[in-house]
Amino acid sequence: MSLIGKKAPPFKAKAVIQQEIVDHFSLSDFMGKYVIFFFYPLDFTFVCPTELHAFQEKLPEFEKRNAQLVGCSIDSWFSHAAWLNTPKEKGGIRGVSYPIVSDITKSIAKDYEVLKEDDGIAYRGLFLIDRQGIIRHQLVNDLPLGRSVDEAIRTLDALIYHEQHGEVCPANWMPGAKAMVPTPDGLEDYFN
């Protein structure tokens, strides 16, 4: 099932932002901003910290685009806090500054349709949510397949470009490349 074009499923949950535990964290707090909401399987694993650090390294690029990063796993807020306090060289994510949501009940992963029920953990789901809270892009990877943060930025750029110019972005579109103009007959004028 695709969640594209639907309102992002709402939730209130505990989250850790650096070392502070927030009791009633909600994506609705970011209305008016783009949100990259991503799931990862578990704290203290192998691929997961590489992704969380990769998102952190590109955080200024997301902020420049008025986008909020939010991570989520089924681990407890205590586990998130411990992982955030563990140095990178020991497998930790110290230095990650965006919110990490605790989905200990697994209800958020279930609502976003990324729960791997047999293992009780989330697949590597990523959702681009627009400023009105609508899911505009969704990507789900299997457990061993890490994501491309650069592709998340490119997709965000394409959405922003479309919203600003009304043009659509063809395959492999990058900022500065030619886009396509929708025409009344439904065809896009790409070659003019």
What report would you give on this structure?
- The chain is of the alpha+beta class.
- It folds into 2 domains: 13-146, Glutaredoxin (3-Layer(aba) Sandwich); 148-192, no CATH class.
- 24% of the residues lie in helices and 25% in strands.
- The strands form 3 sheets. A 7-stranded mixed β-sheet has the order 2-1-5-4-3-8-9. It has a two-stranded antiparallel sheet with strand order 6-7.
- The radius of gyration is 17 Å and the shape is globular.
List keywords for this structure.
about 25% helix; about 190 residues; single chain; 2 domains; alpha+beta; 5 helices
Strand content: 25-35%
- Class of secondary structure makeup: alpha+beta
**The CATH C-level class name of the largest domain:** Alpha Beta
Low-confidence stretches: none
Shape: globular
Q: By CATH's scheme, which homologous superfamily of the largest domain applies?
A: Glutaredoxin
Note the main sheet.
Answer: 7 strands, mixed
Q: Give the total of beta strands.
A: 11
Offer a concise description of the structure.
The chain has helices at about 45-55, 60-65, 75-85, 105-110, 150-165, and strands at about 15, 20-25, 35-40, 65-75, 100, 115, 120, 125-130, 135-140, 180, 190.
